[in-house]
Design brief:
Pfam families: Redoxin. This is Thiol-disulfide oxidoreductase ResA. Keywords: Signal. One of its GO terms (molecular function) is oxidoreductase activity. The protein is mainly β. Among the domains are: about 180 residues, Jelly Rolls, CATH 2.60.120.560; about 130 residues, no CATH class; about 150 residues, SH3 type barrels, CATH 2.30.30; about 130 residues, Glutaredoxin (3-Layer(aba) Sandwich). About 10% of the residues lie in helices and about 40% in strands. A hairpin with a 2-residue loop joins strand 55 and strand 56. Helix 5 packs parallel to helix 8. It is flat.
């Protein structure tokens, strides 16, 4: 079809920048010939036909890393996936491509000629003979080939690739996707996309003067930008010569800081089409010439920049619709404008730039010269003077189903006969007989006629996802055997099935399961703590009337560390484990080391949302509790939490040990119990953020705990394949699979005993280590203790006590101080807002923090010096009981006002991630200074800071 048209001209009319609407006034354009439109589209070890690291890509989006195996049936790819026991045979139409690992530096062919054949094939080799019917080519590693003359589009002297820089695109290899996500895909070895804004960039090493031949195609209305000579930044794309589609016109434009201009290349016909052009680019002079395939000049644009740059990359952006990069060839150009040619005539281009038209009759092998014409009009041109030979328009591409693309740019395409241990046999249209090609040096095997593969017949369709493969398909009947799992997978497009190797980790997805949420998103306010601290507050909350609500279909469940969710009614808890009743099994007991949580009320009856910050405070373990950490987190039905140790539970009472004191709580007031296993605890972070200054002790660190190591929940290695069925009703069941038949997997659970799961009720089937990986992301698995960070050694010296600490570096400095209200140790209330007009000193501390105890006497002494100038000191204690606070103050003979930050919320507002932290708030209520740490000479820094804040001149330096 005709994709573009324009009037013939030696110099195109220029179009002023941004005046795109004027393109509609371009004079009637003559037809520009274009290419054809794009159509809408353990057994015994076996010898490997490919190197390790090869990947098979299927037309349905599946892939598998592994090895190409020798195969007998024609049009078949036999593939050995690393995670599967047996090789699989895939029909060629179900395959998209096989990609082999490429060396760091691609080889360049050492050949006399490069031959471009019909169908896009490229051969490198020598020309042994040429007559009116065929050419005889000597191709290294392939041998002598007899090629029909009509199948040769052109041949040019290669001279070890001296003039050719790049020939591709060779799929997406060497191209970087610059838009977010992978918006480009590879089809038939060509990058293609239908995503708006999708962009790729390839460093093709364009010389300063280069020729760039390219073919682009589309199925709908085109809207793309092809930029030549770009770098890594977007500004270089804006300054490059750019082919763009404006309405129905293809234009070439460039815009620099000094100049801008546009020229029309031709008209784009509506709908499906393609464009084939050659651009001659001189980056140093800022000039580009554009020619059609038959040698007609279409555009000549010169826009020079102030400082010419030579950039080697090419960028392609799909603004809307779709676009495919079919071909791009980069060569060196001598800077001389190409001479006009008659593209439909046979001709010879000579190295001196001259063109000789006429029928190329033959190659005289004796004199190594080309004979043009016949009889009296015969002329001979020595081979050494030849640059390129155009014989005729090539014949049609023929039926080609597979292309073999080599690392050096060579390409053969045709019908696949067979793949052997080190070779493949291909029947290439236009070449006599089957061509035997080496597998060594292959870059890709590309299926040229891939098609959608119908869904699997029978069974339950799913997607097998392992570390190195993703294969749509289905499970087929199988039983455990030595070296193979009872789970056998038959991918779509495969003639057979293969068992999974023992020990593989992954999942089979039947339906994406929704994220599990053990509580609804609605927030219910928790009662404030009353006299006696958080323990009393928790117990007071339990005294309220339990909420009642409909279950909404929810049910109480038992949660295991492996991720299992078992609907059950807990009957009792003791030092050995949990006893329960469930309709799923006759089993009634699970040991404590396997339990993660139990719901004692229907989740809808305690709709409490736990914020991230609240959870972090609940799970931070103070230093003083490290020797006797809590083992359980208990949540009341009214929403309060407390940490302690569950001693036991019967039908009426939960027996707790809270701070070494026994407590009995009515069972019907408890909604949830979470087990805090010591081996799951996250160790203290090595560094606190923000970084502490001298003498700082990092406070409990924020941030969600990382996933527990797989070993924390994984059982010892056993025979059989361990799986976890994630059912569509929320049940999760882990068991060792023993057999599969029809749609059911039979096996044995370590908790429930013998079990049978129907895949029709399953969203996901997790396999091996994939069970622990999935379990780590579940809601209750996130409840793990985090050690508070140990104190850091004090720093600072007597000779330079204030080195590096001015108190002005913090992100809070200069901003309004966060307001709060806390109870003081004497029972009164404190809020910074009530003391506007005074200068406040907030000292965040804890009794377990050595640097805090060292700094506090200094802080109290300095604050007392400024007492008559409106300075007030409040020591904010982090999450400790009044009894232990008073005991320390008495021992240290300290008398500050102490505010009780019982849950660490105020410390979070002030980003007190490392203590001691001392904050000075000025009379306007803004943070004036913030110090992290202390040290033996902290009083010097604090004194100078207070002088500045209250408006006093700094102290005179002491003479040495």
């Amino acid at each position: 079809m005709t994709a573009m048209s324009r009037t013939p001209s030696t110099r195109p009319r220029r179009i002023r920048p941004r005046a795109r609407v004027l393109l509609a006034a371009i004079a009637s354009l003559a037809a520009l010939p274009m290419g054809p439109a794009v159509a809408a589209d353990g057994p015994a070890p076996r010898a490997s036909a490919s190197p390790p690291g090869s990947t098979l890509h299927l037309s349905n989006g599946g892939f598998a890393r592994g090895e190409l195996r020798p195969s007998g049936p024609p049009a078949t790819i036999r593939w050995q996936a690393a995670a599967l026991v047996d090789p699989l045979d895939f029909d060629l139409p179900s395959v998209n491509a096989v990609h082999f690992p490429a060396p760091e530096k691609l080889p360049r062919p050492d050949a006399e000629y490069c031959f471009e054949l019909a169908g896009g094939d490229v051969l490198f080799g020598g020309l042994a003979a040429l007559d009116g019917g065929e050419a005889v080519l000597d191709v290294p590693r392939v041998g002598r080939l007899r090629v029909r003359r009509s199948a040769i589009a052109r041949m040019y002297r290669w001279k070890s690739g001296g003039d050719l820089v790049y020939l591709g695109p060779n799929g997406l290899d060497g191209w970087k996707q610059t838009a977010q996500g992978k918006t480009w895909k590879e089809e038939q070895g060509q990058p293609v996309t239908d995503q708006e804004g999708a962009a790729i960039r390839g460093d093709l090493q364009l010389p300063a003067r280069s020729s760039v031949e390219f073919e682009l195609s589309w199925k709908t209305k085109p809207d793309f930008i092809l930029a030549l000579g770009v770098g890594d930044d977007e500004k270089s794309v804006q300054r490059a010569f750019r082919f763009e589609v404006w309405e129905r016109d293809l234009i070439i434009q460039r815009e620099t800081e000094q100049e801008a201009d546009v020229a029309s290349v031709g008209e784009i016909a509506p709908g499906q089409g393609r464009v084939h052009l050659t651009a001659y680019l001189d980056q140093e002079k800022g000039r580009i010439l554009v020619f059609s395939p038959d040698g007609k000049q279409l555009a000549d644009l010169k826009v020079a920049g102030a400082q010419p740059q030579v950039l080697g990359a090419v960028s392609l952006v799909n603004k809307r619709g779709d676009v495919r990069l079919e071909r791009i060839r980069v060569g060196r150009w001598n800077g001389e404008p190409p001479k006009p040619v008659e593209g439909d005539r046979s001709r010879i281009h000579q190295v001196d730039g001259s063109i000789l038209y006429g029928q190329v009759a033959r190659l005289d092998a004796a004199s190594r010269s080309f004979v043009v014409g016949a009889g009296k009009d015969e002329s001979r041109i020595p081979e050494g003077k030849i640059a390129a030979v155009f014989l005729s328009r090539p014949e049609g591409a023929g039926d080609r189903k597979l292309a073999a693309v080599y690392q050096d740019g060579g390409r053969f395409s045709g019908e696949l006969d067979a793949i052997e241990a080190s070779t493949l046999r291909l029947r290439v249209p236009g070449i006599e007989g089957a061509v035997t090609l080496p597998l060594a040096g292959l870059r890709s095997l590309v299926s040229l006629q891939p098609r959608a593969v119908p869904a699997s017949v029978g069974g339950v369709a799913g997607i097998l996802e392992l570390d190195d493969l993703r294969l749509p398909g289905r499970l087929v009947d199988g039983k455990e055997r030595p070296g193979a799992s009872c789970l056998a997978w038959r991918p779509q497009g495969s003639a057979g099935a293969s068992a999974l190797r023992p020990g593989v980790a992954g999942r089979i997805v039947y339906r994406e399961a929704p994220a599990q949420r053990p509580a609804t998103a609605r927030t219910a306010p928790a009662p404030p703590p009353g006299p006696g601290g958080v323990v009393a507050g928790f117990l007071n909350a339990l005294g309220g009337t339990p909420q009642s609500s409909s279950s909404g279909g929810k049910r109480k469940s038992l949660y295991l560390r492996s991720g299992d969710v078992i609907p059950s009614e807990v009957t009792s808890i003791d030092e050995n484990g949990v006893r329960f009743k469930t309709s799923m099994s006759a089993s009634t007991f699970v040991p404590n080391e396997k339990v993660k949580a139990v719901e004692l009320a229907i989740p809808g009856d305690f709709p409490i949302k736990v914020t991230k910050s609240k959870r972090e405070r609940l799970l931070t373990l103070p230093r003083m509790q490290k020797e006797n950490p809590p083992t359980h987190l208990i949540r009341s039905r009214n929403g309060d939490f407390i940490r302690g140790r569950v001693v036991g539970m019967d039908s009426k009472v939960l027996h707790l040990e809270l701070r070494l004191e026994p407590r009995d709580i009515p069972r019907d007031r408890i909604g949830l119990i979470v087990w805090l296993h010591p081996e799951d605890a996250r160790p203290k972070p090595e560094d606190a953020k923000p970084k502490a200054d001298a003498g700082a002790n990092p406070a409990p660190a924020a941030g969600p705990p990382p996933p527990a190591p797989a070993s924390a929940a994984a059982p010892p290695s056993t025979a059989g394949t361990r799986v976890q069925a994630v059912c569509n009703d929320g049940i999760r069941l882990t068991f060792v699979a023993e057999s599969f038949a029809g749609t059911a997997i039979a096996g044995k659970s370590g908790v429930l005993g013998p079990c049978n799961v129907d895949l029709k009720e399953v969203d996901e089937l997790l396999i091996g280590g994939g069970i622990e990986k999935a379990a780590a992301s579940l809601a209750y698995q996130q409840y793990r203790l985090v050690d508070a960070v140990e104190p850091k050694a004090s720093q600072g010296t007597a000779s330079d006590p204030s080195a590096g600490a001015t108190g002005t570096e913090g992100s809070l400095v200069g901003k309004p101080a966060p307001d709060f209200e806390l109870a003081l140790l004497d029972g009164t209330k404190f809020s910074p807002a009530q003391h506007r007009g005074s200068v406040l000193v907030l000292d965040f501390w804890a009794t377990w923090c050595g640097p805090c105890i060292q700094a506090m006497p200094q802080v109290e002494k300095v604050a007392d010096e400024f007492k008559d100038r409106g300075v007030k000191l409040v020591a904010v204690n982090l999450q400790e009981e009044p009894k232990q606070i008073k005991a320390l103050l008495e021992r240290q003979k300290l008398h500050p006002a102490v505010a009780l930050d019982r849950d660490g919320a105020v410390a979070e507002k002030y980003a007190a991630n490392a203590i001691p932290q001392t904050v000075i708030i000025d009379r306007e209520g803004k943070v004036a200074r913030l110090f992290i740490g202390g040290g033996p000479h902290f009083d010097v820094m604090l004194r100078e800071a207070l002088r500045s804040v209250v408006g006093e001149a700094p102290a005179a330096p002491v003479s040495k």
